[in-house]
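>> Question from a student workshop board

For tomorrow's exercise we were told to take the sequence and the ligand below, predict the bound structure, and bring the output to class. My setup keeps failing. Could a helper post the expected result so I can at least see what it should look like? The ligand is pyridoxal-5'-phosphate.
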Amino acid sequence: MMGTTIDLEEIYAQMGIEKPVFDFGKKIAKELEGRFADIDAVAEYNQLKVIAAMQKNRVSAECFNASSGYGYNDLGRDTLEQVYSDVFHTQAALVRPQITCGTHALALALMSNLRPGDELLSPVGKPYDTLEEVIGIRPSKGSLAEYGVTYRQVEFLPDGGFDYDGIRAAINEKTKLVTIQRSKGYLMRKTLSVKEIGELIAFVKNIKPDVICMVDNCYGEFVETIEPSDVGADMVVGSLIKNPGGGLAPIGGYIAGTTECVENAAYRLTSPGLGKEVGASLGVIQSFYQGLFQAPLVVSGALKGAIFAANLYERLGFTVLPNGTEERHDIIQAIALETPERLCAFCEGIQAGAPVDSYVTPEPWDMPGYDSKVIMAAGAFVQGSSIELSADGPLREPYNVYFQGGLTWHHAKFGILMSLQKLYIRNLVNKELMC
Ligand SMILES: *Cc1c(COP(=O)(O)O)cnc(C)c1O
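>> Workshop helper replied:
Here is what the output should look like for this input. Compare the format with yours to find the bug.
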């Protein structure tokens, strides 16, 4: 039967979304149907890629058993690592709950593959904030700098392109590892497509073939049908409480790459001599499998949410990055809200739309390491998980909110409409633009 109309307006009204906000959202979503179909196709491709890897490695119920103690011969853990290396088309992978977060995974990949006297190069400008202390850009105990690993950085050109001359000049006999961050993170630079990453790696390897190319893959997994490891990266690294954990993994990180790189990481994570042989998976391994299985769909929902918000707020006159029509290479959306009142209202809306902690009101606070107050909204099942719908922004010009995630498109949509509802009732948007 075609054309059955379910009264969404009524349930949205019950949830506190007024008709003008609902209608505006409906119009924007309608215009995006074509793009959403493309996103669905990427998700479908990646879904099959994940299923193929699980079938090839004969994933079975036994894989979900919890191991304890040393974790010798943990079938579930070893099989999952094979599944990851097939999904990323690498020789090996390390996927562990003992890797506590994305920063830890990246630090592990770097510290295990660099030796005193080596040099690390970032050809894509400043890395993610937390890596500054790992590298020692900001002095920190245990940093690479303390171990005698030096660091160089080449900025993007003003037009956003790679500074190939600068990169050529920066590569020297000490350069051992090149780190490439795929996502913009919380900077106003562009996110790199996998194709662009491939071009950069080819350029670097042409100058110095034995240099290790590592990609910080955070927020990028499953946004495209290929990953940086398909275009020459020796290692891709990320967090399981972002894209590849599918919202189900309660902790963890991964490193997928060459046997050599992954072994180095394993010997550093556990101990020389032990490597991948130890490391009990405790009770979390099933959520790693199931999360990976869900990840293509979850990422597609987060992407739809980001694009929906970009178009909604762009139409209301705000600067959004990426803009409403740009191709996506990660799941982060920035919106310049221009005033602290709007930034707070936006975050209150995201919080109010959450399944968890919806009754709390986020307040700006002095977060360590920031020079202004920061407001954050998150009502997550997994603490700090940013594949779940979350938003934050520093209270300073231009009052950017950065938001990402949403385990389902419908939740992302609801959260975004709730953010607009908060702006709407406080007269913080130009209502004439909502028609
Ligand atoms: C989130 C993120 C990290 C760090 O991950 P944590 O889990 O927060 O430690 C590193 N790089 C990028 C690009 C990220 O988005």
